[in-house]
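Translate sequence into structure tokens.
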Amino acid sequence: MSAPSEFLWLPDGSSRRWLPAALFAAVSLAVVGSLAFDWQKTGTNMQAVARERGAALFRLMELTRDWNARQHGVYVPVTPSSPPNPYLEHPRRDLVTRDGMALTMVSPASMARQIGELAEHSDGIGIHITSLNPIRPANSPDAWEAAALHRFDAGLDELVELIPGERPVHRYMAPLRVGQACLACHEKQGYKEGQIRGGISISMPAADLLKIRDDERLHTSAVHALVLLVVLGLLHLLLAGNRRHVMALRSLNIEQEQVIAERTRALSEANDKLLRQVADCEMAATVFENAAEAILVTDEDGRIIQVNPAFTRVTGFASSSVLGKPASLLKSGRHTREFFVEMWHGLRRDGRWQGEVWNRRENGELYIVWLFITRISGGGQPARFVATMTDITQRKDLEEQLRHQAHHDPLTDLPNRALFADRLRVAITQAQRHGRSFALCFIDLDRFKPVNDELGHAAGDDLLVEAGKRLRLRLRAADTLARLGGDEFAAILAEAGTRAEIEEIAARIVADLARPFELQAGTARISCSIGVALFPEHGRDVERLQRSADAALYEVKDAGRNAYRIFANGTAVDESRTGGES
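Result follows.
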């Protein structure tokens, strides 16, 4: 250091030889302190990112487990990879469908465990459902998990730690509490709603986050070193002045410090922005390539400019065969022009649209997806549309199958009692609204029990199926036929005409069911009894209409069966007809 910089001239002409050293020390300590703070902040930010990732995965697994529990378990085909769970005690754990397919129930914990295995195979993320009192030995906790579970019992909400080593990982764990739906399986273990049942432990590879942290610390160190050198250089220039220029140098020092601060802040902001842009681009590319949902990007004209691998798996179209082509090549033809007009109207108005859409695969197969489209613009770049497609065909098919099974008789595939009651209410509502009439028919098979006794229950089932077919042939497409149970059927004759037309239909039904039934076990002969009530003449609500039809039916049975009668004035005697031998 030059001689003039060994002391500082003050405005009164005095000097302080120790002030330069004190200033250098103060600046150095400030820079070192700032660097230490930034290093600590970088580590804290990395820990926060790990916690957010772990919490998101935990919430996903918790929602999956809760959904399964609310469904009381889900069934999957029995395969080597999904055998029956020997630890699941449930009276309907294993089922066989009508076509012979063996199904087994997947419990909430088992479903979450299998999803965790998939995550570990695909992303290296370890997910372990554990408990201090596990039903399944594989769910026993390791030492870290056991310690975490004890801390949860003491009131801790969640735990995240960095486990160093050759392959460092972030471990996150949060407690699983017993919900109402969980009591079906765990109440016998002494658990109550709200108690901690166990926890979900998530192990996430930490190498990428640690590299980002180290790179950011290296960058921060370089910036601080540069700042320190610049500041020390400026101090050297300030101290090299003499008495005549003290005031000028002091003013210059202030200006220089302001410039340095502004440039340092601008440099820091530019570096932060660049780091965020790089991280965002890398994350977006990773998500795009590894997403399970099909993703395609189009220009404003709807022409495809980019697709991800999942797009090919879902649609069957290779990326090379769709790039540059309009997205309309996926159209199924099941939606009207107005549907797409409304879709584009919503996109232009809100910048996004979502809903169910039928598409067509490359092989011509139709499938349904949940489509989410977002318009992205800005940054001086042309506007783009990003569409995410989730194939929900299997879910829709399963929902329709379950809905059909819940409302149809498994033997005849006719509507069951619940669906028939709903259609009767609808028929009454529509008839009241439009001033129409209809007929309600209760149909009982006569001499059905002897068929079961003489030919066997299998023959009885065959007869019921054949009887349902004969009844269906005598009714119109707008009419409703249902099997209420046993040998009881019911029909709604929509938009009934004259009584003569109703009597003609009833008489034909009586005659059809009186004809012999040629079954595999032999020939069966039965007859039927029909009670008819007319809306609104014999009742304006479900209860009265059914009571009238039931009364007419018992009049037929008391009179010898094998006939029909229309309810009238409290009896059903006036409109009786027979259809053959009794």
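Note: Residues 209 and 215 are 10 Å apart (CA to CA).
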